């Protein structure tokens, strides 16, 4: 009898499950289509499903989203792989008491671009739902590129003073609420009631930060002067604090900063795409390149240059003369600079010269330290050298 009763219970459960499935309003999403949901004043659940797509490296940065025409506070949404999973979430949510201060609802809901997903919208309002697909999301591309660049520059940035002040000021602007609460906690007595107040205060602070971030565009448009004043004031205070403590000098602290930057950059690379296999492959390649032995790289470069030597460009006669004049002027300028510096023993140098007056004229920049006979002799030597060079070229061509 117990077995028969169990079988009857399973049949009734399956019957209720099938009737529930037929009662669901399920719509298949197609790219660019707009779905109009009418309302008769009662709340109802509408489910929109997106068929799975094959993973492709060309669609690495694809984004799939559903845009709704109603404010985020007027609806509830549930995401699952199948319509029944969405309905189970809806049923659990309706039959239990819950509150979530950190919910992040927006008019645009993002779905997984490769796995099949279903979206349930529960509201009493009339709305339009539009299914959009961005084949190359440039924000995700920037996240991937930024992660790669940050990982490669992390060793240098951890030693950079400007980066230290920039991060300190940015952290001060973003976390000023938490810093004020931390200072306030030092004044309060250590009692259970006060500790509960502090825990609630930290929670409210995080909630306020999330609220500000989600409404950042509205704040920038409607209250630009307030946002600018707050940013400048907190950045100035943060700069003073960073200047007071000074940049990091301990090598271990610099290593911790470098590893933190690299971990953050790996997170950027991983979350820049829903194609986790491709993201992990990029991360492995970047880590391998940054930790590749430099001696092996230099050996490969040396072998390449030896096997394929660069082509040497020979100078023409005008280029040769111009290069000679340029280098001569450069060498004379360096000689003047050395003789005028404290490192040069002037009297010892004068004793070795035949004509100290000409040397002094040369140091003062006068042209009269060169005689006409020396100019003519130099031009004659140059002409003779050019003639010999041309003769040698003509002989080689004739042979």
Descriptive notes:
With 399 residues, the chain is an alpha+beta fold. The chain is 62% helix and 11% strand. It has 15 helices and eight strands. It has helices at residues 2-23, 83-94, 138-157, 161-174, 176-187, 192-214, 216-222, 224-245, 251-271, 276-290, 294-307, 317-340, 346-351, 356-363, 372-398; strands spanning 25-28, 34-37, 44-50, 63-68, 76-80, 108-111, 117-123, 127-134. The strands form two sheets. The protein has a four-stranded mixed β-sheet, with helices on one face. Helix 4 crosses helix 8 (224-245). The chain is elongated, with a radius of gyration of 38 Å. The chain starts with a helix and ends with a helix.
Task: Please sum up the structure shown.
This protein has 15 helices and eight strands.
List the helices and strands and how they pair.
Elements: H1 2-23, E1 25-28, E2 34-37, E3 44-50, E4 63-68, E5 76-80, H2 83-94, E6 108-111, E7 117-123, E8 127-134, H3 138-157, H4 161-174, H5 176-187, H6 192-214, H7 216-222, H8 224-245, H9 251-271, H10 276-290, H11 294-307, H12 317-340, H13 346-351, H14 356-363, H15 372-398
